[in-house]
Amino acid sequence: MYDKIIDFIRTLYPEQSSIPLHAPIFCGNEKKYIIDCIDSTFVSSVGTYVDRFEEMICEITGPGFAVATVNGSCALHVTLTLAGVQPDDEVITQPLSFVATANAISYCGAKPIFLDVEREALGLDPVALGNFLKSNARIRDGNCYNSVTGNRIAACVPMHTFGHPCRIDEIAEICNHYHIALVEDSAESLGSLYKGKHTGTFGLFGIYSFNGNKTVTCGGGGVIVTNDEALAKKVKHITTTAKVSHQYEYVHDMTGYNYRLPNLNAALACAQLEQLNTFVENKRELASHYQKFFETLQIPFIKEPEHARSNYWLNAIILADRKTRDEFLKTTNEAGVMTRPVWRLLNKLEMYKDCQTDALKNAKWLEDRIVNIPSSVRM
Ligand SMILES: *Cc1c(COP(=O)(O)O)cnc(C)c1O
Fold first, then answer.
1. Does residue 188's CB lie within 6 angstroms of at least one atom of ligand 1?
2. Are residues 255 and 332 in the same domain?
3. Does the model's pTM come out above 0.70?
């Protein structure tokens, strides 16, 4: 059966002896914009491509304000900081995510609480969130406290896994009710909508990543979106070394960060964003080929959830058990078809192993079974 799958994947990517999991493609204005950027000499932290990139992100995703950053990880760090996360606070997130999600919480001196994900959509389960808060949350002076640890629960960071939207409207409602700031890790879900609204736009902040393996890439990059103008100004300030605007003087009014996206990367990002719709259409078509094929084999394929339009960043299947998964990974990778297991659950990593969790029934089940399969845009 593995041979059948390998053969099928080879028909999807003909003439490629080694098939990567996700490779970028540059077939639009990438070279043109990069050359233009170099000719302008504005290759670094100010330039028209940064402005254009931020405008394009607002047009695509909807909110009024976007601030470019040097990657998605620092975008998460800054948004959590400006959402008010402080040392000894706690932040709810999901254990089934890339390590950057939990790291950003740590950068603030806060601790993650890991709650279970949904088995179908793979994102934070609003029911798990509601249950946890119902038994553990105490509201005092407009803040939410964890009755087990006594610490404040300052924020919640759900993630739209592999580009599949989680039930973010329900999560937003729960967070509102408990006075918890909502920051969406939508690093993987640029181009994914939930109930017609772009992922990343349901809470205080959303962030997207433009790392080399994401749907749209600029080498490395990130962006923060928000509807709050005052917060957007703070984001810009703190990510650009908190320099007070002046023609020539260097005055900084707080400890800021150099998290700026270079104009050179922004040029690449603009060219790639022009192709976002084409890429997403292409990936959705690929996903429908996979879906039909895996149906014939009776292997569960992760489909876009109800009410959602997914970008299908990474396609995923669910194998029978850990042993089958390991055999499949070995056979496919040896045959030159790159496949990957899902991330090790974050609560199992050394630095997060003492964090509070719920039973994590679905996350544990999924960790043993999910495999990502080649998902690049096809030429
Ligand atoms: C890629 C990714 C990030 C981080 O983005 P970088 O640009 O690589 O720093 C954060 N969270 C998730 C879930 C990601 O997949």
1. yes
2. no
3. yes
